[in-house]
Design brief:
Two copies of one chain form a homodimer. By secondary structure, the first copy, chain A, is an alpha+beta fold. The first copy, chain A, has two domains: about 10-165 and about 280-350, Aminopeptidase; about 170-275, Alpha-Beta Plaits. Helices cover about 30% and strands about 25% of the residues of chain A. Chain A is built from ten helices and 19 strands. In chain A, the strands form five sheets. In chain A, strands 1-2-6-3-7-18-8-17 form an eight-stranded mixed β-sheet, sandwiched between helices. In chain A, strand 11 and strand 12 form a beta hairpin. In chain A, helix 1 crosses helix 3 (about 95-110). Chain A is elongated. Chain A starts with 9 loop residues before the first helix and ends with a helix. The interface between A and B is large, with 45 and 45 residues. Strand 13 (about 220-230) of chain A pairs antiparallel with strand 13 (about 220-230) of chain B, so a sheet runs across the interface.
Chain lengths: ~350, ~350
């Protein structure tokens, strides 16, 4: 089993984490290594295990509890393991998303023995795949109490800025219908693809909203992400499906988002196929406000959906805060500016030190 | 080997042909049976063979030569072999497309020993699949002289009416392009599917032409037959392809058809992916006019593309004329009104008898 030194420079620890491949579904080796390292090097923590997720927590009786979470899994490797260092940059699969965040958390776990708030550290599996396999989802289902906290910090890549709350996402299929006919005698038919022009016109005419919540500006968007119609090269198509994705600000709940999309496409056949609510930033909660102050950063809105929303649904204020440029996630050239790793450790230590 | 009685009632002969399965590429058994029957029962004919195509011809030194052709292959069987008779209807795979036509031709081959025009009868393979495998295509390539004629009659199903010439067909892909972005930050991208609205609007605004040639009205059509765009459910698509099919009257040649489509979609990226010219009806040619008179029918335009166009390209006037409802072709319920078989034999005998 690979041996991890949690007390080493977190940049080196990040490289060591990257060098243990952990594509979603195949995190056991890395989870075992993290668990063993915590057991040996952070004896002040209580350890818990759920599948390939490892939890470590203090039980100091503090007034507040802060949960820090990072997923151990990565997207498939693209010739970018093992890691390599080029000056200030560390390259490799997961350097940004999110083994640099994991390294920050694991290093703090071992070196912050007397934190101001009780801590729960969660290293979990299967974040990069469908929601049903998500390790946090499993823990929420089977050990809801393990997630108890006053603030959750997800160490997802944010370039070491604070991204608060997150937008919701709704997916819907809008179907236009017609009547099949041989394309040589098209007047016997009715073309469902031609009818989809009206759906696309609605999208072209749509003006997305911007909303300011707690100083974070959420910018919505309504986009076709797929269009598909056609039976054969000599047949007038009788069906065309436009799949749209609505990213909505967290002042709308799921029902309001659906009502809005139905209004935009009034008169069309529409089926909602996916709906995940967003999360309000919750920055006025005391623990969140204290963290923001420690970072000295101005929080901004998170546009993508993240597990922040899961904590929001549990009534726990949650933010994304971690090293790494999110635009480099899932790319072959994935890398992290190692100074952000050092900075993130310093900021979190300032927030959590006694 | 199945034995075919060419001198029997052509309705029974049609049933016998249907009962020898001959899905495209698997016509050898039927081609062998046809060849053997012609050899035994039509000794006045010269026999030629190319792959699974059988040709039989007279060499009487007549002034004109009429070529009669039928394909032996069928689309895949759909629980509709063997044939079954219900009153005047004969059911089974190929009853319409086009073993009833084959039965008419084979019966005439054996029973019309002294025709007014020299005859070439062609029973060929692989008409129902891609053009490159078409038996007539192979014969044209390898034995161009075998197809020499003053008139070609394709016994494709026309409900025993005369369908003259055929429309051409052009397929083109019109591509709109954009810039990918995460759908949560869609303003960084440019949506190619939204851009396709303008392509569909052109189609919706298009008015198809009708043209009268030799009394046949050709009705054109321009239809989207496929639309496809989308990268992933959370990505703004950077490409959308609309495939259109233009069916054009035979007064336009291929180049004119392409120029027209390029004009309609002026300003868009367009690639022609398939182009087959049509065929002028050619009904003013003497042999064609004589045949029309023998049928007593008013010719109409053929909308679908057929091998008629191949003969037109060779400078040979060609018509479709055969028993069977073309709308029943390729259906599970395929059947032929047997009276059309009897009628077609009578009409062709009237045209060809001395």
């Amino acid at each position: 089993m690979p041996v991890l030194d949690l007390t080493s420079d977190p940049i080196d620890l990040c490289a060591a984490l990257v060098d243990v491949p952990s594509v979603s579904g195949d995190e056991a080796t890395l989870a075992d290594a993290v668990e063993l390292a915590l057991q040996k090097q952070a004896p002040h923590l209580e350890l818990l295990r759920s599948g390939d997720a490892v939890l470590a927590r203090t039980n100091l009786g503090r007034e507040r509890r802060v949960l820090l979470a990072g997923h151990l899994d990565t997207v498939p490797i693209a010739d970018n393991v093992p890691s390599r260092r080029e000056g200030e940059l560390l390259y490799g699969c997961g350097t940004t998303d999110m083994k640099s965040g994991d390294a920050v958390l694991a290093h703090l776990a071992a070196t912050l023995t007397d934190p101001r708030h009780d801590l729960t550290l969660v290293f979990y599996d299967c974040e990069e795949v469908e929601a049903a396999r998500n390790g946090l989802n499993r823990i929420e289902r089977e050990h809801r109490d393990w997630l108890r906290a006053d603030l959750a910090i997800l160490a997802e890549p944010t370039n070491a800025g604070v991204e608060a709350g997150c937008q919701g996402t709704l997916r819907a299929e809008i179907t236009t219908r017609g009547r099949r006919a041989h394309s040589a005698r098209s007047w016997h038919g009715s073309n469902a693809v031609h009818a989809a022009a009206a759906v696309l016109e609605r999208l072209n005419a749509y003006t997305a909203r911007e909303v300011d919540i707690d100083g974070c500006v959420y910018r919505e968007g309504l986009q076709a992400v797929r269009i598909d119609g056609g039976v054969a090269m000599n047949v007038v198509p009788d069906e065309c499906v436009v799949t749209v994705n609505f990213r909505f600000a967290p002042d709308r709940d799921g029902a309001a988002a659906e009502a809005h999309v139905r209004e935009v496409f009034d008169g069309f056949e529409l089926a909602v196929t996916d709906l995940a609510p967003g999360a309000l930033p919750g920055l006025t909660e005391p623990a969140a406000a204290e963290f923001i102050a420690a970072t000295g950063a101005t929080p901004s809105a998170k546009f993508g959906w993240t597990d922040v929303s899961r904590f929001a649904a549990l009534g726990i204020p949650a933010v994304n805060y971690g090293p790494g440029d999110p635009n480099l996630a899932h790319t072959r050239e994935e890398h992290v500016d190692t100074r952000q790793i050092t900075d993130a450790v310093a900021v979190l230590r300032r927030f959590l030190a006694p």
